[in-house]
């Protein structure tokens, strides 16, 4: 009897030992945030962890930035557990407002920041502050000076595209005439690059005489006023290059009010509905059209990749399309002018 009891006890101890050894392989540690760690399961969680990405344009409200918004939303909808928080100041001149907004996102501890810098030098410090807090950053459209090596930029090659804008103006004017230039905001990297490219392009055309340069402050009303002043001071002006959406819209209205629509050549930038109507009517000769949908789409995909895999991401030239009345109905042009998540121009 005692022998049977001893054998039974030994069997029970053996079973308990097997359970203990087997169970050790399934032990998981819980860190301070409540997440499990120490197994392949944790890698799976990292790859699908819910992420909130702050997406901040230079300013809310314009057609251009709303297309960037569309692109970012489209990318988020195709990713697992990714949401965006879209927010921005109401005017591109509100540099302090944008700085404060971005610093609030850093304090909140968002998972990533995807933004367009209103001022290249001022915002460089904010990018550095975010990355120091282990928050990945990418820039859309407009970067900083300096541009941190770990902050990729998704943008147009503004210098090369503005050189082409000078070519378009020269072609329309047969290489001669008085012209005006409407940059938008000094200190913005995109503005400064476009100015550099346009002036560089003009060196090829000595018979194009630049008689006026006025900033629009990225405001259509300001652009209207300064263009009206230019037309009064130079009634024989032949052409205008406006370097962003508000500048083009304001300049076109001023030319129209002066009774010079179709007589003064306008080369513009971007593709707001009023700009497209201007090309269709002949009031605007050509537009340098960026791909803001692609900027929003590719930058959002890339920052999620940076967060989830630790990948290093390079700068990306998102390209331009030169839109004139002759190619407006081309399918590729239409894909850029009327982007959708079902058929994204990416």
Describe this structure in words.
The protein has 346 residues and is α/β, with parallel strands linked by helices. The protein has 2 domains: 135 residues, Rossmann fold; 133 residues, Response regulator (Rossmann fold, 3-Layer(aba) Sandwich), CATH 3.40.50.2300. Helix content is 48%, strand content 17%. It is built from 12 helices and 14 strands. Helix 10 links the parallel strand 11 and strand 12. Helix 4 runs parallel beside helix 5, helix 6 packs across helix 7 and helix 8 crosses helix 9. The chain is elongated and about 65 Å long. The relative contact order is 0.12. The N terminus is likely disordered.
Assign the CATH superfamily of the largest domain: Response regulator
Number of strands: 14
- Indicate the low-confidence ranges by residue numbers: 1-10, 12-44
CATH topology of the largest domain: Rossmann fold
Main location: other
Family: Belongs to the bacterial solute-binding protein 2 family.
Domain Periplasmic binding protein: 53-308
InterPro entries: Peripla_BP_I, SBP_2_dom
Secondary structure elements and pairings:
Layout: H1 2-24, E1 29-30, E2 36-37, H2 40-48, E3 51-56, H3 63-78, E4 82-86, H4 95-108, E5 112-115, H5 120-132, E6 137-140, E7 153-155, H6 158-172, E8 177-182, H7 189-202, E9 208-213, H8 220-233, E10 239-242, H9 245-257, E11 265-269, H10 273-281, E12 286-290, H11 292-309, E13 316-317, E14 320-323, H12 331-337
Parallel strand pairs: 3-4, 3-5, 5-6, 6-7, 7-13, 8-9, 8-10, 10-11, 11-12
Antiparallel strand pairs: 1-2, 12-14
């Amino acid at each position: 009897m005692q022998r049977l009891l001893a054998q039974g006890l030994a069997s029970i101890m053996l079973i308990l030992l097997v359970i203990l050894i087997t169970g050790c392989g399934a032990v998981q540690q819980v860190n301070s945030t409540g997440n499990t760690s120490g197994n392949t399961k944790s890698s799976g969680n990292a790859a699908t962890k819910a992420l909130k990405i702050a997406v901040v344009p230079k300013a809310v409200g314009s057609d251009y930035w709303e297309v960037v918004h569309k692109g970012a939303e489209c990318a988020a909808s195709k990713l697992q557990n990714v949401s965006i928080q879209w927010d921005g100041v109401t005017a591109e001149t509100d540099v302090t407002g944008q700085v404060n907004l971005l610093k609030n996102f850093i304090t909140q501890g968002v998972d990533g920041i995807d933004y367009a810098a209103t001022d290249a030098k001022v915002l460089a410090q904010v990018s550095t502050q975010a990355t120091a807090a282990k928050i990945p950053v990418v820039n859309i459209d407009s970067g900083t000076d300096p541009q941190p090596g770990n902050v990729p930029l998704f943008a147009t090659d503004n210098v090369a595209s503005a050189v082409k804008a000078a070519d378009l103006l020269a072609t329309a004017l047969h290489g001669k005439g008085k012209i005006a230039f409407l940059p938008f905001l000094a200190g913005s990297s995109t503005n400064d690059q476009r100015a550099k490219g346009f002036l560089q392009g003009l060196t090829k055309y000595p018979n194009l005489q630049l008689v006026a340069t006025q900033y629009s402050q990225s405001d259509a009303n300001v652009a209207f006023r300064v263009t009206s002043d230019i037309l009064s001071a130079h009634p024989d002006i032949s052409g205008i290059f406006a370097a962003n959406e508000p500048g083009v819209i304001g300049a076109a209205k001023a030319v129209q009010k002066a009774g010079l629509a179709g007589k003064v050549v306008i080369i513009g930038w971007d593709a707001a509905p009023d700009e497209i109507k201007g090309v269709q009517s002949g009031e605007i000769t050509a537009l340098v059209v960026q791909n803001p949908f692609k900027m929003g789409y590719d930058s959002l995909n890339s920052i999620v990749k940076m967060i989830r895999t630790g990948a290093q991401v390079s700068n990306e030239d998102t390209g331009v399309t030169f839109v004139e009345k002759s190619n407006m109905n081309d399918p590729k042009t239409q894909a850029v002018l009327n982007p959708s998540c079902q058929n994204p121009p990416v």
